[in-house]
Specification:
The chain is an alpha/beta fold. The chain is built from 13 helices and 15 strands. The chain has one domain: Alpha/Beta hydrolase fold, catalytic domain (Rossmann fold), CATH 3.40.50.1820. The strands form two sheets. Strands 3, 4, 5, 6, 7, 8, 9, 10, 11, 12, 13, 14 and 15 form a 13-stranded mixed β-sheet that branches. Strands 1-2 form a two-stranded antiparallel sheet. The N terminus and C terminus are likely disordered. This is Carboxylic ester hydrolase. Its EC number is 3.1.1.-.
Length: 472
Amino acid sequence: MDSFDARGERNEMRIRPAEVRETVTVRAPAGTIIGRRTGSVRRFLGIPYAEAPTGARRFAAPARRGRFTEPFDASRHGATAQRVPLFATTTVPEPSVPGDDVLNLGIVAPDADDDREPFPVLVWIHGGAFLAGSPASPWYDGRAFARDGVVCVTVGYRLGVDGFAVLDGVPANLGMRDLLLALDWVQDNIAAFGGDPDRVTVAGQSAGGAAVLALLSSPAGSGRFHRAASLSGGTFAADGDAARDFLGRLAHRLGVPPTRAGFAGRAVEHIQRCVIDLRDEQGDDLPALGLFVGDDILPAPIADGLTRHGHAVPLLLGATGDEFDGDATIRTAGTREAGTRVTDTLFRAACPRVAASRRDAAAGTWLYSFEWPSPVLGGATHCIDIPFFFDVLDAPGVGEALGPNPPGELAALTHTDLVRFVRGQEPAWARATGTLGDAAREYGRPGAALTADTTGLFDPVVPAVSGVAEAC
């Protein structure tokens, strides 16, 4: 695979043998941090950016982590907010790591020296319905970005009740407040790792993609990042009444009052297991926890916020062709019946809506559609685009989801487009305006050459669906 020079042009790869592992030390404003170098890729994992949200800090706004007084060992993934996966089997491998310091981030960076210009930065937000997910997933390994001259940062944030409960005396959107503080940490420290704090792209998939759009629409997000990419995101927000109803039922099961003190008296793992039990009783319907509109972070609905904020931030936006409709029978002569599927109402419809909200944005919006159908899952389903964008087709779990021979040339194309976007290049296809017939980059459309510069029309444009919770 090729890399890119500072202008985004291809270079031959020149890397040291991958089997060599060494310690590597960085002295940052946060303190001395010791990571590992493998070949030309440096990894610094599990770095706390905030104090552990335990004791009095549980259900409180995140507090910036103090400077390390001793060298910090960043050789392994940090604790995850997820204690219990939502499902026994998930498309994305989502390991749970025990520990209290769940507000941590990982950095995968190229080798750097004092004589070269700093690298652009990609900050990745994982999905999981705002209830689960893990930044320690091997599908989020940033080695291909580091290989291609991009510093990749993966962020952990509070989930479920601890991150998104609507409770009296608790700041709303705690998980979003975590992400904002992580972006501040990146601004303050990423230069020590070779990154450019003036070229930060925030990106995420599913709930992470929705968080990106929320950050873009929030007045609090201003100045913390410079480009944005939302994969299978949406403008979803929790309904306050539904959230309180769910929390009431959850508290009854836990045997506590539905208050900050009540939930604080139960372990995170206990609460997450009870959430799963309630989900199973409801026939897999997910609880109404997630982004909340009406506080200082999201004072207005996300779609409305996008008309007012983030207009200087270029946005790459898209969805998979089938999301949660992974069945070959939905494909008829390469077309789909608009508006009849979960895919359309939850995900694809959000793309033209967002583009329309940003029609006056000088920075531009570009749409894509990931169309390659997994032979295992029966379509271009939710999450299968991640190992293509990260170019990690050899990662654990990819074969189980994509079959034994996922197309490497498609990974090269999708990953290259994202790298170029992060580097500051404008995508090669037309900007979107939210109107019928907007151009979109199509990745892996059946019958098209995988390496072709395929530009099609984004379909469908369907009515907005209100009151729908994020699904993954």
